[in-house]
Automatic annotation (TrEMBL):
Record family assignment: Belongs to the nitrite and sulfite reductase 4Fe-4S domain family.
Keyword vocabulary terms for this entry: FAD, Flavoprotein, Heme, Iron, Iron-sulfur, Membrane, Metal-binding, Oxidoreductase, Transmembrane, Transmembrane helix
Protein name from the UniProt record: FAD-dependent oxidoreductase
InterPro entries from the UniProt entry: BFD-like_2Fe2S-bd_dom, BFD-like_2Fe2S-bd_dom_sf, FAD/NAD-bd_sf, FAD/NAD-binding_dom, FAD/NAD-linked_Rdtase_dimer_sf, NasD-like
Membrane spanning residue stretches: 513-533, 553-570, 591-610, 616-638, 659-680
Listed SUPFAM superfamilies: FAD/NAD(P)-binding domain
Domain BFD-like [2Fe-2S]-binding residue range list: 451-499
Domain FAD/NAD(P)-binding: 26-306
Keyword Flavoprotein in annotation: yes
Source organism (scientific name): Microbulbifer taiwanensis
Lineage: Bacteria, Pseudomonadati, Pseudomonadota, Gammaproteobacteria, Cellvibrionales
UniProt KW Heme keyword: yes
Length: 681
């Protein structure tokens, strides 16, 4: 690398790009868009030397997945974002080497070490910086922005060390950050002076989203501006415009971003909110391009990664077309501003044309004054809200809170301006589906044209072609097709296509549930096959075994303890079916359920002394053991189904769950008879 650095960064300016036999393309920025640009330039020009500079000390990573890393859905290796493809020594990467100056006259850039790098074409992918509100106390300890990997590592430590965290800002990043920071041991408050997602949702949709956040245990303080952060050295209290205060230990700022334009301004490029670019992403200097969050096209700055990738397509082809006139290139025409986020287990998306202005309450105005119509499906019990904006029989926008199997087809229909039949809209308002019944097709049953990765426009057919070429691991397939490299929401589909584990499908407490389920199966086997405890007439028998197994008082203690455990295990069913009961994540309840079930089996052994009983007592024992057996097996499958997708054991889990529920319904009657028989007879 040192030799390559010396050859690419000569100190004399006159030995620049103009005197080399090959073009030198320099990319400034190692974010997802900068990495994609370097990758495309290597791919499209087999002679070019590509040099990429990054200001951060970390190797390139996918910033879009930081929320998933914060929530422990992904590991550090899962967010790695290396430049892939055939390099052949044509790539030089300089990490922790920010560019300080651009010399447009001599076509060189100077980095922080003083090294001068010539370029034929320069691409600025400098991204954006977090906006820090100008309020008193923002410089106090435990006030953190959320933008970089280093910020995320700080927030992980913050989550474990503080009891109350306030997330300021209720945009997409704020929502994801609040969900990722919430644990059983802390409080998280989401605060914003405006509505959720800046009021892009109507009042009803926002109410559904608030309910979903409340189910996660996140407290909301919306519509009251933060005016001051108070404390001696560290945060202690927040002051709001209403005069109210909030005691807190830490503050996370998700208050927006602004384009990084300092480098462009210093060298005299035209800037406004961002670096002003043409349809080919050229700046006011034709040899300098800008892409991603730092670029301003048609007076618009895009703050999402997908528009940046679309800009890279036009930019890189325009750059490489000089050496390859046969290369077809399409100018950039702007991008859709879809918002797709996953707050814990709650998918949420805003698709297509949704910015229709705000009413007096600050919500998105859904009054259809332009001939468009709104169609809505809602299911309070399941927490599902879906709305379509239809104009002239075309779907032009959509919102959904909660999962929707047809979301991929919906985005494709909006992007391609596909017409929709009136019958489909009637079905949507009735069942919540446009193109299918309630039973969704699996990814393997979809046609090859089915769009799996929305962010990179990767179809099932492209994935299957890569798999047939030997790409049989998630990371290999991602590197070959770019599928799953942006938001990661399509990774479960890719995993199902590969029949391999998907890391972000792992249930919380999976290991604990697995251990307790296996211990339960062992106890069930002992209770079933161990010989009954003998009634010994010898004084050598340990007195405590005799008391536990045969003394009436201790038999009652163990019996009522067993009854209490059985009632506690039923609480999981109550948590899943009673909508108002929203305390804790359901995975936490599952873990407690499995622990209590295991404890109940221990008490059962103590209560019965390995005796199965006779007549109805035998029936009670067999039903209890069968119910706990199916429950333990369901626990094993829940904990391991992300590893066993190739065996399709999820279907077995479904049926064994039904058997488990059926057996549980018979237990109250048998237990009631058993208690009556003991006391009456």
């Amino acid at each position: 690398m040192a030799e390559l650095e010396d050859s690419l960064a000569p100190t004399p300016v006159h030995s620049g790009a103009s005197e080399t036999d090959y073009p030198i393309f320099v990319v400034v920025g190692t974010g997802p868009v900068g990495v994609r640009c370097a990758q495309k330039l290597l791919e499209l020009n087999q002679d070019a030397q590509v040099v990429i500079f990054g200001a951060e000390a970390e190797s390139p990573y996918n910033r879009v997945k930081l929320s998933q890393y914060l929530s422990e859905q992904l590991s550090l290796s899962d967010i790695d974002n290396p430049i892939i493809g055939e390099r052949n020594g044509r790539l030089a990467e300089f990490i922790d080497r920010p560019i300080l100056a651009i010399d447009r006259a001599n076509k060189t850039v100077t980095d922080a070490t003083g090294k001068i790098q010539p370029y034929s074409k320069l691409v600025l992918a400098t991204g954006s910086n977090p906006t820090i509100p100008r309020i008193p106390g923002v410089e106090l300890e435990n006030v953190h922005p959320f933008r970089s990997l280093r910020n995320t590592e700080n927030l992980i430590r913050l989550r474990e060390q503080n009891r109350h965290i306030c997330v300021v800002g209720a945009g997409a990043l704020g929502l994801e950050a609040a969900a990722a920071l919430k644990t059983q041991k802390n409080r998280v408050t989401l605060q914003s002076r405006t509505r959720l997602l800046s009021g892009m949702l109507n009042e009803e949709a926002e109410d559904y989203l608030k309910s979903a956040l409340g189910a996660l245990g996140i407290e909301l303080k919306i519509g009251d501006a933060l005016t001051a952060i108070k404390g001696d050295d560290s945060v202690r209290q927040l002051q709001f415009a209403s005069g109210e205060t909030l005691e807190t230990d830490a503050v996370v700022l998700c208050t927006g971003i602004h384009p990084e334009t300092d480098l462009a301004r210093q060298c005299g490029l035209k800037t406004d909110r961002g670096i002003v670019v043409s349809e080919w992403l050229q700046t006011s200097d034709p040899d300098i391009y800008a892409v991603g969050e730092c670029a301003e096209f048609a007076q618009k700055v895009y703050q999402f990664v997908r528009p940046g990738y679309e800009q890279v397509e036009s930019c890189s082809k325009h750059i490489c077309r000089e050496g390859n006139p046969d290369l077809s290139a399409e100018p950039y025409r702007g991008s859709l501003t879809d918002i797709q986020l996953k707050i814990a287990h709650i998918p949420c998306a805003l698709i297509g044309e949704l910015d229709r202005g705000k009413n007096s309450s600050g919500y998105a105005d859904t009054s259809a004054t332009d001939g468009s119509r709104l169609f809505t499906y809602r299911n309070r019990f399941k927490g599902l809200y879906r709305q379509l904006l239809v104009k002239d029989n075309y779907i032009v926008g959509a919102v959904h809170i909660g999962s929707w199997d047809e979301a991929s087809d919906l985005r494709k229909a909006v992007a391609r301006s596909e017409s929709i039949a009136p019958q489909a809209l009637q079905q949507f308002e009735r069942d919540g589906y446009l193109w299918q019944k309630k039973v969704a097709l699996s990814i393997k049953e979809q046609p090859d044209s089915y769009l799996v990765c929305q962010c990179n426009d990767v179809s099932k057919g492209e994935l299957c072609a890569a798999i047939s070429q030997g790409k049989r691991k998630l990371m290999d397939l991602q590197q070959a097709t770019n599928a799953g490299s942006v938001c990661g929401s399509c990774r479960p589909l890719i995993a199902e296509l590969l029949d391999v584990p998907a890391p972000n499908l792992v249930m919380r407490h999976a290991r604990g549930i697995l251990v307790t389920s296996i211990v339960s199966l062992i106890l069930i086997a002992l209770a079933t096959f161990m010989p009954p405890a003998p009634i010994s007439e010898s004084v050598q028998t340990h007195w405590y075994w005799q008391k536990l197994w045969y003394d009436n008082f201790w038999k009652q203690v163990s019996g009522y303890s067993l009854l209490g455990f059985c009632l506690l295990t039923a609480s999981l069913s109550l948590r899943k079916r009673w909508r108002k009961l929203t305390i804790g994540h359901v995975d936490h309840w599952r873990y407690v359920h499995s622990v209590i079930g295991c404890a109940a089996l221990v008490v059962l052994v103590v209560h019965t002394g390995f005796r199965l009983g006779e007549n109805l007592n035998l029936a009670l024992m067999l039903v209890f053991l069968a119910a706990t057996t199916t429950g333990a097996l369901v626990g094993v499958f829940m904990a391991r189904n992300h590893h066993w997708t190739d065996l399709k054991l999820r279907e077995h889990r479904k049926w064994w769950s039904r058997v488990h529920y059926a057996l549980l319904w018979t237990l109250p009657a048998l237990l009631g008879y058993h208690i009556l028989a003991v006391y009456y007879f």
